[in-house]
Structure formats: C-alpha cells, structure tokens
Design goal:
With about 110 residues, this protein is mostly helical. The chain is built from six helices and no strands.
C-alpha cells in the first residue's frame, strides 16, 4: 500500500512542476526521482551513486525509459519504477543521466 501512495505522490508532483523549470539535472532529479532515489544513500530505490558505479549510461537511459523491459538484466526480480520514456524530453533524459553520473565515485 505504501508503494501506491508513493506513486500517486510522484504523479501529482510531476503534474505540478512546469517543464520550463527542468533545465538542470538537479531540477529533473527533484521533479521525478527524489521520492525514490537519493544521491548517495539507499532509499526506496538504489542511490544514484550505486547506479552510476554499476551501470553504463546506456543501461541507465534504457531503464529510465522502459524499466519493465530490462529489470531482469539488472538483477532485479521485479520493477516498481514507473516508465519515464514519454515523460522526459531528450534534453531532460540527458540532464538526469549526467546528474546520476556526477554521483559516481572518483577512482
């Protein structure tokens, strides 16, 4: 039941934010991702740090656009992440992927 409330909250949040304000990766993160992900800590979903350290940019883009199509290839038994394939513009997708990669450990 908690998951349903989170998804409803995310949908309401997304609808309330103007697309004009989504001009940075941080803004896209706050608009679509922060309810389930954090930059460095495990939340409902994995941290951006964990994602950036274990996935390619292509895997990240695919999962954001169509999580139901590739969750098994990432080692998950199920996916509750909503698809943002038609929600995000190409620019917003690029911004969020760059933002995720900014959380990667420096080696």
């Amino acid at each position: 039941m908690k998951h349903i409330y989170k998804l409803i909250f995310m949908a309401l949040l997304v609808n309330s934010i103007s697309a004009k304000s989504l001009n940075t990766g941080d803004n896209v993160f706050r608009a679509y991702c922060w309810g389930c992900h954090h930059q460095t800590a495990q939340a409902f979903g994995p941290s951006f740090k964990q994602i950036a350290n274990t996935r390619t940019k292509e895997q990240i883009m695919t999962h954001i656009g169509s999580p139901k199509s590739d969750y098994r290839s990432l080692g998950y038994k199920r996916s509750v992440m909503p698809s943002f394939g038609t929600t995000l513009s190409k620019k917003e997708l690029d911004l969020i992927v760059k933002f995720i990669y900014s959380c990667k450990d420096m080696k």
